[in-house]
Design a protein that fits this description.
- It is a single chain.
- The protein has two helices and 15 strands.
- By secondary structure, it is mainly β.
- A ten-stranded antiparallel barrel has the order 1-4-5-7-8-9-10-11-12-15. A three-stranded antiparallel β-sheet has the order 3-2-6, with no helix packed on it. The protein has a two-stranded antiparallel ribbon with strand order 13-14.
Length: 368
């Protein structure tokens, strides 16, 4: 009996000895984009990853303070006690200015997804270059006036009109950003992000106004000005991504920046006219070359939509369209000289105009 007992006990232990532990399932990566099918607000392909975004910009550029003439097509009343054929006065008119043309631009952004709690780092470059022109002319001074407001040779509105006026504005806009981005998932459909970083700006402008005819007694008669601003600053952006359907999102962002930089201001005013009020001729040649340091605030806003899809393994392809607004406060610092008084003193004031953009951006984004 004892032999049978020890035999059964040996068989039992032999069975346990041959038994192997169950294999631990391996942790595998998979394409969260294809699995999710757009069901989460901002899926990521990997813990570490890269992304690249290229944008085509089609923006309208404008700047306050670039009015170059004041025009009235029909004359109104005249100054009391003066000859109406000599000194017509503009009662109702309009300023003619340069700007508002739509120009193409580019914006390129590239960065790295990190595994540290939804933090990303990226760099972005924005460029817009354009030349804008405008002109205004009349046949005679009998029934119309064009007052050249950028010439300081004894000019007062309506007293010393011209027949032709034109202006050209050249703009070179470049901004580079370096930033960190943190994404917060408020729900399965809504993701909010905060960006903070530094930026550099190189904004160079040239403005020229030309005048001829009327009381102008020599050619060329013009105003030329350069208004260049180079700055570094801090910026912060608040972003929103709202998943509204399987692969469609509504995007929004608002950015504010504070920029400290150097102005390089150069301008030249060459004019010689016959003053109809005093029956005297004036000739002025002003040259200004000035450097100054200023702090300027700027903001941007955008609203648009994105469509995304899985692109092979561990990657995503997206297309965006947005409408953008951007404004640089008091960027135009050109000095406008007014007139020469009896003591040969000159008066001037700064334009203090805002530089602004608005228009569409079309982007392609690739995440890996």
């Amino acid at each position: 009996m004892k032999k049978v007992y020890f035999l059964l006990l040996g068989i039992t232990f032999a069975g346990f000895a041959k038994e192997t532990p169950a294999p631990v399932p391996q942790i595998q990566e998979y394409n969260v984009f294809s699995r999710a099918q757009g069901k989460i607000a901002s899926p990521r392909a990997r813990a570490w990853g890269v992304f690249l975004q290229a944008e085509f910009l089609y923006w309208s550029s404008y700047e306050d303070g670039l009015e170059y003439s004041y025009r009235q097509d029909s004359l109104g009343s005249t100054t009391p006690g003066t000859d109406p054929t000599t000194i017509p006065i503009i009662d109702n008119g309009k300023f003619t200015k340069v700007g508002g043309s739509w120009k193409p631009g580019v914006r390129v952004e590239g960065g790295i997804h990190t595994p540290f709690d939804n933090w990303d780092v990226y760099a972005r470059w924005t460029q817009l270059v354009g030349t804008m022109n405008n002109s205004s002319s009349i046949d005679s001074l009998d029934n119309a006036n064009i007052a050249p407001i950028w010439l300081g040779a004894g000019y007062q509105t309506g007293y010393n009109p011209v027949l032709q006026s034109s202006a050209t504005w050249n703009l070179h806009y470049n901004v580079v950003n370096f930033a960190c981005k943190r994404t917060y998932f408020s729900s399965s459909q809504l993701a909010l992000s905060v960006h903070s970083g530094v930026q550099g700006a190189w904004i160079n402008q040239q403005f020229q106004a030309n005048y001829a005819g009327g009381t102008v007694v020599n050619n060329p008669t013009y105003f030329k000005g350069k208004n260049n601003f180079q700055a570094v600053g801090l910026f912060s952006t608040f972003g929103m991504s709202w998943l509204v359907s399987n692969q469609w999102k509504i995007l929004g962002r608002f950015q504010g920046s504070l920029n400290f930089g150097k102005y390089k201001l150069e301008q030249q005013d060459l004019s010689a006219v016959f003053d109809r009020a005093s029956s005297l001729s004036y000739s002025v040649h002003d040259v200004l070359d000035q450097r100054s340091y200023r702090t300027r605030f700027a903001y941007e806003a955008g609203l648009g939509a994105e469509w995304e899809c899985a692109w092979k393994k561990q990657s995503k392809l997206a297309f965006q369209v947005m409408y953008d607004l951007s404004e640089w406060i008091h960027l135009n610092q050109l000095r406008r000289f007014t007139f020469v008084n009896s003591s040969n003193s000159r008066y001037f004031y700064s334009a203090n105009g805002n530089l602004g953009f608005q228009g569409f951006s079309f982007a392609t984004r690739f995440d890996y």
